[in-house]
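Continuing from yesterday's entry. The apo prediction looked reasonable, so today I'm repeating it with zinc ion included to see how the binding region is handled. Same sequence as before; SMILES copied from the compound registry.
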Amino acid sequence: MKDRGQDRMTCGVCVEPGTFALDLRARPQQAPAGHRLVDIAAIGICGTDFHIFEGKHPFLNYPRVIGHELSGYLADGPDAGRLVVVNPYLSCGSCRACRRGKPNCCRSIAVLGVHTDGGMCARIAVPEENLYPAEGLTPEQAAMVEFLAIGAHAVARSGCGAGDRVLVTGAGPIGLGTALFARIAGAEVHLMDLSTKRLAAATDLFGFAATHQPGDDILSGDLAEGFDVVFDATGNADAIEAGFPLVAHGGMTVLVSVVKESITFADSEFHKRESQIIGSRNALRADFDRVMAAIRAGEVATGALASAVVPLADLPTQFAALAHDRDHLIKVLVTP
Ligand SMILES: [Zn+2]
Ligand SMILES: [Zn+2]
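Holo prediction written out below.
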């Protein structure tokens, strides 16, 4: 499918569960007030997109133009051509969380590409305050800032640093990002996953030597007292509950992934540790900035994170296979 001139553009659309297709839509010509037009450079695909494709995402209307991990170039104005990262979390600005500086957990948050049409297309209009300059990054690196910011936010929430021993359960992209930023913060980082393939990739590509599998006798030897922070990035309620006994006295659990089910724990175990359980949702501008600074400083092996780059035109024939193979991929990037 070819773009016809400048007034139409090709969009990647989840038409209904199980169907991903290209569709020609109007190309935005003028940004609404307070918005800027962004010519999309690269789009990351993540678990959320696969959930939308598989019909597993709650509160979502089809058809939906997906794409929330976005980089692009400002399309107009005096700084046209400047590379930016898109923060896809559209907050209301007026609820209690927004007023208190936490737009990442706005009561009526809308995420581009999830609750509203996203950026898997040539051009999109975005509120100006959601665009962050990305000088010094490549377009591909800039498209990976959002998913890394989720891990960076979780690490900031925990306050972990030098002298802390942390465990990240779930070595998918979000868990890897969390592990990378916990290490940058100075913590001793351990990773746990069911998949030996994922753990081997974490060791080979990112140098995480301390890896564990569920069921291992982890609390022995040097690790007998457990971990100061256990980050959960599994998206699995049983795994979250299995993580509670691994928390050291005085330590905490940070729930990075979200599950539908209730989770339970024994208060006596929780209480005797004087433990904390905190949630971590999305990310703040400070997290995006922290990620960009780390990438500029060469502290994130972004080349190893990008498993594949797929042109949008090829995505319809590949989407189902990518969804199927996602345990063997870290980050797939799409170019419009
Ligand atoms: Zn994502
Ligand atoms: Zn709000």
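Comparison notes:
- The pocket of zinc ion (ligand 2) is lined by residues 91-92, 95, 97-98, 106-108 (CB under 6 Å).
- The CA atoms of residues 8 and 84 lie 23 Å apart.
Will overlay with the apo model tomorrow.
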